[in-house]
């Protein structure tokens, strides 16, 4: 079983950047795809990006395509979400998910 912990959230101005990190403990990190999700107040949780186990196949939500980048380091049991050109509508709690396990989330606030 995997235990996931997100970090790297914070307050950033529009146009700014953040890197989120998802660190996993337990067995099997390299055997599973990883995804990043977000949930804004009053809205349903939505998938932002997905990366397969080997890091070759990737999918992005249309709303973040060209601005966000997902990556992973299987040797470090870590996944990343690089977010650039952030917009106020990116404000949400961001979660990583792997093999039906969720992290606790990290808050991202984009505001001037």
Task: Write the SSE topology.
Layout: E1 3-7, E2 10-12, E3 18-25, E4 34-39, E5 46-51, E6 58-60, E7 68-73, E8 78-83, E9 92-98, E10 101-102, E11 106-110
Parallel strand pairs: 2-11
Antiparallel strand pairs: 1-3, 3-8, 4-5, 4-9, 5-6, 7-8, 9-10, 9-11
Number of strands: 11
The helix/strand order is EEEEEEEEEEE
Please report the distance between the alpha carbons of the first and last residues: 40 Å
Unreliable stretches (pLDDT < 50, length at least 5) are none
**Content-based structural category:** mainly beta
Helix content: under 10%
Rg, rounded, reads 13 Å
Mean pLDDT: 96
Largest sheet, if any? 7 strands, mixed
**How many DSSP helices?**
0
Outline type: globular
Assess the beta-strand content as a share of residues. Answer: over 45%
């Amino acid at each position: 079983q995997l235990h996931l912990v997100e970090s790297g959230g914070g307050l950033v101005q529009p146009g700014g950047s953040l890197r989120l990190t998802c660190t996993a403990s337990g067995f099997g990190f390299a055997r599973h795809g990883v995804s990043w999700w977000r949930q804004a107040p009053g809205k349903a949780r939505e998938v932002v990006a997905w990366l397969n186990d080997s890091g070759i196949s990737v999918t992005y939500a249309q709303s973040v395509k060209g601005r966000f980048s997902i990556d992973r380091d299987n040797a470090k049991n870590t996944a990343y979400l690089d977010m650039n050109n952030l917009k106020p509508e990116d404000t949400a709690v961001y979660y990583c998910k792997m093999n039906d396990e969720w992290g606790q989330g990290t808050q991202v606030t984009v505001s001037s």
